[in-house]
Amino acid sequence: MKSVLIVEDSAYMSAIIKLTLKKAGYKVVGEAVDGKQALELAVKLNPDIITLDNVLPDMFGIEILQKLKKDGLRADILMDKCHEFVQNH
Questions:
Q1: Is residue 2 in a domain?
Q2: Any domain includes 56
Q3: For residue 80, what pLDDT band results from cuts at 50, 70 and 90?
Q4: Tens digits of per-residue pLDDT, 8-34?
Q5: Nearest to 75 by CA among 56, 55, 52
Q6: Which residues are CB-contacts of 1 (< 8 A; sequence separation ≥ 6)?
Q7: Mean pLDDT for the chain?
Q8: Cα 54 from Cα 82, distance rounded (Å)
């Protein structure tokens, strides 16, 4: 069973992602609501997959992605850009 870290500052979106992943057979091992927490949990939990919101209170998802890759984390990362889409349209 693949492990997943959810990085999402919206409790509503986090709940939807978590429910969807669990129904699909994934194990949610952690949830982070900001970039600092995401970086700490990613290193601590070493998940197979990270779902990453692009806009968080303290940093952008791309910054988190760059730091994780620089640190050698091998997780597959799914980045959510819906927030930008809604704001720009």
A1: no
A2: yes
A3: confident
A4: 999 999 999 999 999 999 999 999 999
A5: 52
A6: 25, 26, 27
A7: 90
A8: 8
The whole-model pTM stands at: 0.89
Query: Domain holding 68: CATH number?
Result: 3.40.50.2300
Task: Output the DSSP codes for the chain.
Answer: --EEEEE-S-HHHHHHHHHHHHHTT-EEEEEESSHHHHHHHHHHH--SEEEEESB-SSSBHHHHHHHHHHTT---EEEEE-HHHHHHH-
Would residue 3 count as lying in a domain? no
- What is the span of the domain harbouring residue 14? 8-88
25 φ/ψ angles, rounded to the nearest 5 degrees:
95, 10
**Does residue 35 form part of some domain?**
yes
Provide the token pair at 64.
Answer: 């988190």
